[in-house]
Amino acid sequence: MSKNNEVIFLQQIKGFIFDLDGTLYLGEKALPCAVDTIQAIREQGKRVLFISNKPLEPPESYAAKLTRLGIPASADEVITSGYVLGTYLSQQYPDLAYYVVGEENLKAELRAFGLKVLEELWDQNEKFVIEPSGIDAVVIAFDRTLDYRKLNTAYQALRHGAHFFATNPDKTCPMPGGGIPDAGATLAALEYLTGRKVEVMAGKPGRVMMEVAMQCLGLPPERCLVIGDRLETDVRMGIEAGMHAAVVLTGASSREQAEEAMPAPDLILDDLGTLLRLLRASEWGSKRGDEF
Ligand SMILES: [Mg+2]
């Protein structure tokens, strides 16, 4: 796309959906122009939404972190995979009893959506076949307290036909020095054990996160732009939801990968400074009332 076309393209966009790590910040540092870009979008009367695949903390925590890094944000501008799953399940399956392989934050978030989250079946020995009575659905999430009892209980429930849901498919969670096993690893174990496939994936690159994002923004997909550093998750998810997508080359993707990617991103941005310049040009074009 030529620069003029990029500017006209951005004038059509009303909602900007931002990935966090590798896009707006790296660890505890905001990436260059992140603060000014978000501010410029808001000054144009457009909406922003922040997305995370991690169900370990509530939206309030991400809003606090963004605010700390100079990007003022409120909890209702953040959706995590836990929030997305809670929204989806409370709309589609409000009356099931859920067994959650996940941490306390996720259980609390799902309960806050009015869902029934079961306790561990402590009266049964985890070294034998657990009778999964009362479990209608299993939720697999990032869980740093995973143990044999949880794996066994989830397996038995799924073997008996329980619904099968997950927060996010990530194999590992990046950490200083490498990564640690994430929900995708547990999910793969249970899919292998049962021969079943997860029914609904809340987080990236599944479609549910984008449906919830559109509900939050109150915009049709063609007015939304997803901005992220990963082609296989952020960009793919946006395009498959009928939205537009931009890849920013400050995280996981190189220019060569971006140029060869299928589906292709609408925009390839070296950094957020490129987006900021296009936004300013699009505002100037709108004020002049003509096209480039
Ligand atoms: Mg990222």
Explain how this protein is built.
The structure is a single chain. The chain is α/β, with parallel strands linked by helices and 292 residues long. It has two domains: 3-53 and 207-288, Rossmann fold; 83-201, HAD superfamily/HAD-like (Rossmann fold, 3-Layer(aba) Sandwich), CATH 3.40.50.1000. 40% of the residues lie in helices and 19% in strands. The strands form four sheets. It has a six-stranded parallel sheet, sandwiched between helices. Strands 7-6-8-9-12 form a five-stranded parallel sheet, with helices on both faces. Helix 1 (3-11) crosses helix 11, helix 2 packs parallel to helix 11 (272-288) and helix 4 (81-92) packs parallel to helix 5 (104-112). The model has no long low-confidence stretch (mean pLDDT 95). Bound molecules: magnesium ion. Magnesium ion is lined by residues 19, 21-23, 228-230, 251.
CATH-scheme architecture of the largest domain? 3-Layer(aba) Sandwich
Biggest sheet, in brief?
6 strands, parallel
Q: If you average the pLDDT, what whole number results?
A: 95
Stated plainly, the CATH topology of the largest domain is called Rossmann fold
State the assembly state of the protein chains.
single chain
Let me know the number of strands.
15
Name the CATH class of the largest domain: Alpha Beta
Give the total of domains. 2
What is the H/E string? HEEEHEHEHEHEEHEEEHEHEHEHEH
Straight-line N-to-C gap: 13 Å
CATH superfamily of the largest domain: HAD superfamily/HAD-like
Tally of individual helices:
11
Strand content: 15-25%
Low-pLDDT parts are none
Which distinct ligands sit in these coordinates?
magnesium ion
From the alpha-carbon coordinates, what is the Rg to the nearest angstrom? 20 Å
| Sequence of strands across the biggest β-sheet | 5-4-1-13-14-15
Give the overall shape: elongated
- Provide the helix percentage: 40-55%
SS-based class: alpha/beta
